[in-house]
Amino acid sequence: MNPKDKKRTINSVTVINEHQLEVYISGERVGPEALKIVDNPYVNRIIKTKVDIAEQKNLIWTLLRQFNADNQTVPGWTGFNILTRHIENLTEDVISYLPTINAPPTELSTVFHVLKQSELIRQHLSLNTVVVVMDQALYTKAAEIVWKRKEQFQNIVLRLGTFHTICNVLGIIGKRFKDAGLRDLCIESGIVAEGSLRSVLEGKMYNRAVRTHKCIYEALMRLMWNKFVNWLDAKSEQKENRLVLLRLITNLTEILDQTSLHLILEREEF
Questions:
Q1: What are phi and psi of 76, to 5 degrees?
Q2: Are 144 and 171 in contact (CB under 8 A)?
Q3: Residue 65 · residue 74 · CB < 8 Å
Q4: Which residue among 42, 46, 102, 110 is least packed, with the fewest CB closer than 10 Å?
C-alpha cells in the first residue's frame, strides 16, 4: 500500500473537561466604548494607497473583459487576480494545536477560558497584543466578556473571521439595494434563481452571493465605461488619450501577468 500523501489525523493532546473551567458569571452587561477616530497620517496614507491600487486593478479588469467580448480570453475577477500575482512572496504558516476543550463552545465559561489562554500565550511570547479570530457565534460572546473586563483583556484584539465578515457585508448590500432594483436585476438577468434569491441577498449562500455581486459589479462598470467613452468621443482633445489607453489594454491582453499590469499602473496616461 502506498503511504498516505496527506495526514488526516492529529496527535492526541490534553483534553480540558467542562468541570475544569472557571465558571464565568456575566452579571450586568456592559456595552462597547464609543468609537474613536485615530488620525494617523501614515496609516491613512497606506490604506488610501492600497484602496486606490485595488480600484485601478478592478478598472483594468473591467476594460480587459470588454475588449474582446465575443472571444473572451480574460478570466473572471478571481482568475484575473490569481494571474496577476505570480511574483508575490508567500510564507508558509506554522500551525500547532492547543489543548482540546470538552465543553459547549458558545458557553461564556468556555469563551472566557479561551481568552485567558490567549492572554497567557501573549505574555509567554512577550507580545504587545495578540489577535484572536472567532466565528460570529463565539465573537458575540467574546466581545461581551472583553467589554466587561477591559483591563484584563486590553491587549487582546478580537477579530470576526473573514468569512463571516464578508457574509455580513453581503447581507448589508442586499438589504440596502434589494428594493432599489437589485432583486429584479438578479432574477431577470438569470444569474440567480428566484427560489435562492432571498438567501443570496442575505449573504447566506456565500458562493452564489459573491458570484452575483461580481457579475453585477462588472455590468455596472461596463455601463459607466460606455458613458465615459461617449464623453471622450465628444471631446476631440481626449481622443489621443483614448488611443493610448486602448494600446495599453491591447498589450495586456496578449501578456497577462503581474509585471505587465504594474507597467500599466505606473503609466501617466492610465
A1: -65, -175
A2: no
A3: yes
A4: 42
Q: Cα torsion at 223, 225, 229, 234 (round to 10°)?
A: 70
Beta strands in 78-214 (DSSP E): 100-102, 130-134, 156-160
The grid coordinates listed for 208 are 452564489
CA distance 249 to 59: 11
d(CA 119, CA 191): 47
Residue 132's pLDDT band (boundaries 50, 70, 90)? very high
pLDDT at 157: 93
pLDDT digits (tens, 9 = 90+) for 198-238: 999 998 899 999 999 999 999 999 898 888 878 877 776 66
| Overall average pLDDT of the 65-82 stretch | 84
Domain ranges of the chain: 39-89+235-270
At 74 the three-state DSSP class reads coil
Rounded Cα distance, 257 and 64, in Å: 13
**pLDDT the model gives residue 2:** 55
**Cα angle vertex 47, ends 42, 51, to 5°?**
150
Distance (Å, whole) CA 207 – CA 219: 19
Q: Containing H/E element for 16?
A: strand 15-17
Instruction: Choose among 113, 183, 107: nearest CA to 138.
Output: 107
Residue-wise over 214-233: b if at least 16 C-beta within 10 A, else e? ebbebeebeeeeeeeeeeee
Residue type, 99: P
When mean pLDDT is compared over 25-39, 160-174, 236-250, the highest value belongs to 160-174
Grid cell listed for 172: 448589508
pLDDT value for 6: 67
The SS3 assignment for 15 reads strand
